[in-house]
Structures are given as structure tokens and as C-alpha cells.
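Q: C-alpha cells for this one, please.
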Amino acid sequence: MPGLIQLEVVTPERRLVREDVEFVEAPGKDGCLGILPGHAALVGQLGTGFLSYTAGGSRRYLSISCGFIEVLEDHVRILADVAERAEEIDVARAQAALKRAQENLAKTATSGEDLATATAAQERATARIAAAERK
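A: Here is the predicted structure, written as C-alpha cells:
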């Protein structure tokens, strides 16, 4: 079994990561995916949460929201709708977004507006805060 796997994380705007890593943990649509070198091939949907990986003995974090993951024996490709490195996240701004999302979610419950949109906004804000707190 090889010792490293190449991780590539891209969004429509930019490439965030392209490096050889020891381990990847990604938020799948239906749960967390742990990927080591030599993993079986798979393609799946991403959920919203934080992605972590280990490179050079240090753990790094990104906030991820939706997209796709492709895993090959020696390569993990993440095509995310939105992603940002933990160190790029403004925690105060993310907390304000979470508060707004929670208020919108409460309003949505009584007004009948789009519950899915309000829930997704809350999940994104929570994922950003979780990733930032782990850096």
C-alpha cells in the first residue's frame, strides 16, 4: 500500500489544495468518508461540513459545501461548490451569518418559505465555524 495519496480540492473559482497527503476525511452526503492511500475507487456526493487532511504530520481543515468526490487508489479529487481554508475564515462574520441563518430558519418555520434554503445556510455557517475553530 502506498504511503501518500494526492489530494486536489477545487471550486469553480479556484484550486485550494493540490498536495500529497497521508489521510483525508470528507463530509459525504450521507456521512463522513475516511480515505487512506490505496482506498477503493468511488464517486460520491459531498455534503456540507469540514474536510480535514494530514500532510507532513500536521492536520489541516477546510469548510466544504456540496459538490462531488472522486477517489482513486492514489488520488482524491474534491469538486466543491464552495470551499475555504480554515485560516481564511472570518469567525465573527461566520457567527453573524449563523445568527442570521437561525433567525431565517425560525421565520421560515412559521411563514412556510423555503425550508431547504434556510437549513442549507445554517449548515454552511456552522461548517465554517467548525473548520475555523479547528485550525
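A few notes: The radius of gyration is 16 Å. The beta strands are 5-10, 15-21, 23-28, 31-35, 42-55, 58-72, 75-85.
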